[in-house]
TrEMBL record:
GO terms for biological process: tryptophanyl-tRNA aminoacylation. Its main location: cytoplasm. InterPro entries: aa-tRNA-synth_I_CS (IPR001412), aa-tRNA-synth_Ic (IPR002305), Rossmann-like_a/b/a_fold (IPR014729), Trp-tRNA-ligase (IPR002306), Trp-tRNA-ligase_bac-type (IPR024109), Trp-tRNA_synthetase (IPR050203). L-tryptophan binds at residue 133. This is Tryptophan--tRNA ligase.
Length: 323
């Protein structure tokens, strides 16, 4: 069975982009893969975090995995900082295979660093920690949204370089990006990807009430035209809304275009608001089933399951290096 590994940073509520780009894929893949899902808390601290909020966010993200349908009987859910091998391997990769020029080329770093006055070294080094996360578990496939593709490609490059320089050690992973929904755009600015850090009206949080989500959708930026057509270059707002509806209702975009031929934008948005509200109510209902204690028990159980896997790969790496 092939292994999949992926993770989400506990830096606030998840949004529809995280769900479509990552979580929903994981839920489907877990049935026929050895599945490992991580709450990547060491990635969260690359920018300043409030101690209490971080603790609560770690539990909240793990709870979202469960509410989305990750089944702890089929998949492993664990917290990155519980497994010391992640940071150990990141250090080793820093010294052996990673180059300054690799990291200087990372578009996410350039974007995140431009928002900080004096960014941490961790923010710069973040893709190496992500490579360590992936390589520690002999991962075949990394299901992520489009914005993480460059990081997964770096993990591949580092694995190849290490294997070349020190002997066959790592499995070479590949990214898995879904054809639709890998890049959900912001509602208020559909030329940029949906993101927690942009602002209130940019994203639909998985914890938004149906009323709040409806307001955001009704206000979503569109265009001065009246046609409901998928055309990301000229109609980014309508195209993004079509993508969201097509995933939620499991319908083809072409069929939705036909269905909405004679409808105005208001009616179209109302339908999306109804579908999103239904989805959110269902998700939030499921999330209520897991107490903090239950979530922490699942994370502790996950820790026990991944500990020997990570230790085995790190031991091999150390041997290859003569440590
Ligand atoms: P993060 O926490 O920023 O995002 C989590 C996942 O959500 C996807 N995503 C989106 N997908 C579609 N449309 C969007 N607008 C959108 N915004 C976010 C991301 O692509 C991601 O899959 N570095 C990673 C976390 C990480 C990781 C890993 C992932 C750390 N180690 C190892 C995979 C494997 C990150 O910051 O994702």
């Amino acid at each position: 069975m092939k292994t999949i590994f992926s993770g989400i940073k506990p830096t606030g509520d998840l949004h529809l982009g995280n769900y479509f780009g990552a979580l929903s894929q994981w839920v489907d893949l877990q049935h026929d893969h050895h599945s490992i899902f991580c709450v990547v808390d060491y990635h969260a601290i690359t920018v300043p975090q409030d101690k209490k909020a971080l603790h609560n966010n770690i539990i909240a993200i793990a709870r979202s995995y469960l509410a989305a349908g990750i089944d702890p009987k089929k998949s492993i859910i664990f917290r990155q900082s519980d497994i010391k091998e992640h940071t150990e391997l990141a250090w080793i990769l820093n010294c052996t295979s990673a180059r300054m020029s690799d990291l200087e080329n990372m578009t996410q770093y350039k974007d995140a660093a431009s928002k900080q006055i004096n960014p941490s070294v961790g923010l710069f080094d973040y893709p190496i920690l992500m490579a360590a996360d992936i390589l520690l578990y002999n991962t075949d496939t990394v299901p992520v949204g489009h914005d993480q593709l460059q990081h997964v490609e770096l993990a591949r490059d580092l694995a190849k370089r290490f294997n070349h320089d020190y002997g066959e050690t790592f499995k070479i992973p590949s990214a898995l990006i879904r054809s639709e929904g890998s890049r959900i755009m912001g509602l208020d600015d559909p030329t940029k990807k949906m993101s927690k850090s942009i602002g209130e009206n940019n994203c639909i949080s998985l914890n938004d009430s149906p009323e709040v989500a409806t307001k955001k959708i009704m206000r979503a930026a569109t265009d001065s035209d009246t046609v409901i057509k998928y055309d990301p270059a000229n109609k980014p707002g309508i195209s993004n809304l079509l993508t969201i509806l097509s995933i939620l209702e499991n319908k083809k975009i072409k069929d939705l275009e036909k269905e909405f031929t004679d409808c105005g934008y208001g009616q179209f948005k109302q339908r999306i608001a109804n579908s999103v509200s239904k989805f959110l109510t269902n998700f939030q209902e499921k999330a209520k089933h897991y107490s903090d204690e239950q979530v922490l028990t699942i994370l502790a159980d996950g820790q026990k399951q991944v500990e020997p896997l990570a230790a085995t790969v790190l031991a091999k790496v150390r041997t290859q290096l003569g440590l």
